[in-house]
Amino acid sequence: MQTVQDAAGLRAAVRGWRGQGQTVGFVPTMGNLHEGHHSLIRLARARADRVVASVFVNPTQFGPGEDFERYPRTLAQDQAGLAELGCDLLFAPDVATLYPFGAAQSVRVHVPGITDTLEGAHRPGHFDGVATVVCKLFNLVQPDVAVFGQKDFQQLKVIERMVRDLALPVKVVPAPTLRAPDGLALSSRNQYLSEAERALAPQIHQTLQKMRELRLEKGHAWRVIEQAAVATLQRAGFQPDYAVIRRAEDLAEPADDERQGLVALIAARLGTTRLIDNLPFD
Ligand SMILES: Nc1ncnc2c1ncn2[C@@H]1O[C@H](COP(=O)(O)OP(=O)(O)OP(=O)(O)O)[C@@H](O)[C@H]1O
Ligand SMILES: CC(C)(CO)[C@@H](O)C(=O)[O-]
Ligand code: BAL
User: If you measure from the C-alpha of residue 247 to the centroid of ligand 2, how many angstroms do you get, rounded to a whole number?
Assistant: First the structure.
């Protein structure tokens, strides 16, 4: 596996493959790779002849006071894992490569509507940063398919919308969420948790399962379920930003009698760590 930092090296490799009629799959990440990321690489390998992964901790998607500085950077370890999985190329650019005019002067991609709620509401500007960097990465890599985890459910919807609206020639492939045996969704941020917090963290997934059961099996009203979920999380020691049931398609509030195509989503803090997770009902 080659590692390249610059656009020219990346383009040369991709051009070579394309010249041989090969397709390209792409997995964008912020590094500190775990089994969840590895499952995305495997999926990309199944869908394309060649696989490119990127590792870039994107400054424009972090708000003031968020964990940009302390986000774990483990490139050598990431490289070894990717090589073992048969990834063909790791693109690990620096900030100047992706933001030649500086982050503050960058062209911005804004996806309206769906970014106003949930993560977008709690992390203002976050999705502008994500859409902007993913658009830049797509232009650099020019993949046929790109794999995104359902763990970042709203992010996946934002990217799907951007791709459709800008008519980008890439197929977005969703990948299921990988979990620890106790149900906690794998995430680079799990390592911020103390032992006591780690023991509590699976309650997020348990609460999501309860929300699904109350809606689909017991037929409770979604607003009542949301209130109960917030109270449960607070009692357990979390500070929830939200615990909601939404339409999976567009993350809008469902109608009172709606039961199909729903998803429960939670964002909650445990100490200084902010965790997100979700559970599609279908
Ligand atoms: N547990 C998981 N299962 C499947 N995909 C995942 C999982 N965790 C992350 N991903 C996906 O990997 C890609 C890169 O995500 P990212 O590098 O932010 O990983 P992360 O571990 O979720 O980090 P963070 O702590 O920032 O949430 C995204 O498409 C994301 O949805
Ligand atoms: C898609 C992404 C790599 C963009 O920086 C990031 O938001 C992530 O890791 O999910
Ligand atoms: N996993 C999405 C990237 C972020 O939290 O900034």
Answer: 23
Kindly state the helix (H) or strand (E) to which residue 229 belongs, with its residue range.
helix 222-236
DSSP states of 7-57: HHHHHHHHHHHHHTT--EEEEEE-S---HHHHHHHHHHHHH-SEEEEEE--
Distances from the Cα of 98 to the Cα of 59, 79, 251, angstroms: 11, 20, 30
Q: What is the position in ligand 1's atom list of the atom closest to the CA of 147?
A: 29
Q: Is 273 in the pocket of ligand 2 (CB under 6 A)?
A: no
pLDDT tens digit string along 65-74? 999 999 999 9
Residue found under tokens 């990440």: 29
Cβ–ligand 1 contact at 275 (below 6 Å)? no
* Structural domain boundaries, residue 63: 2-175
Q: Taking residues 215-223, what's their average pLDDT? A: 97
Q: Is 205 a catalytic residue?
A: no
Q: Note the pLDDT tens digit of each residue in 115-134.
A: 999 999 999 999 999 999 99
Considering the domain architecture, whether residues 20 and 152 belong to the same structural domain is answered as yes
Please tell me whether residues 30 and 149 are part of one structural domain.
yes
CA 263-264-266 angle, 5° bins: 140
**183 alpha carbon, closest ligand:** 1
Q: Is the CB of 30 under 6 A from ligand 2?
A: yes
| Cα-only R_g, the chain | 19
Does 88 contact ligand 3 (Cβ within 6 A)?
no
152 is known to lie in a ligand binding site: yes
